[in-house]
Amino acid sequence: MRTNGTTVSRECHSLERLLRVLKCWHVFSIVSVGVLLVTSFVHVQAAAVAPRPVAGSVRPVVHGSTVKYNSKVRIGRGFSLAELKSAKIGKLEAKSLGIAVDARRRNRSQEGLSANTQRLKDYRANLVVFPRNSKKLKNGWAKDSSEIAPQLQDKVIMAPVAAAPSVETRKITSDEASANTSQKLKAAWNDARLVGFREKRAKERADKAAQEALKKAK
Fold first, then answer.
1. Residue 49 CB contacts under 8 Å (≥ 6 apart), including other chains
2. Percent of the chain whose pLDDT exceeds 70
3. What is the DSSP letter of 63?
C-alpha cells in the first residue's frame, strides 16, 4: 500500500507540474501575441503618417500646477497664442506645420514664454515642409523624399532634457570644523522664543530705574 501511495502522489505532483507549465506557456503565448500585434500596429501607423512624425504635433514644455509637481517639467497640451505671436507664427499656420495650439492657456512667467518661444524657433529651423503639389514649390520647401528628412519615430517630439544640477564644492574651514552647530541652533531658537519676554523685562527695568531716579530727585 505504501508503494501504491507513493506512486499516486508522484503522479499527482507530475500532473501539477504539467498544468503549471501549460498555464505559463498559455500566458507567455498571449503576451507574445500581444507584443507582436502592438509592434505591427506601430509599423502600420508609422507607414500611414509618413513622412510626418509618429508622435504627431510638437507640444510645449510646462510645469506642474501644484506645490508637489511645480518643480518638474512635462509636455503640455499646446502652445499659447502669446508664444506663437512671439515666434511670429500664425494660429492656422501653426496647425498646418504640426504645432499643437491651446488657445485657453496663459503664460504666467517670462521664463516659460521665452523657453517655449525658443522651442518653436528650433522646431521651425529644423522643419522640412513637403508640398502637396511637387510642381508648386515655395521658398524653404523640399521635395517629397525620405532621404532629406527621415521619419521621427520617437514618442515625443523634442523631448525635454533635464538639466544637470550645478553644485559648487569647497573645503571646510577650520572654524567651521570646530564650530558646535547644534549649540548655535539651540541659542538661535531660544533667542527667537524669548524675544518678547526679554523686551518686556528690559522695559520693566527701564521704568523701575526711571521711578527710582524721580524719587532721588525729590
1. none
2. 65
3. E
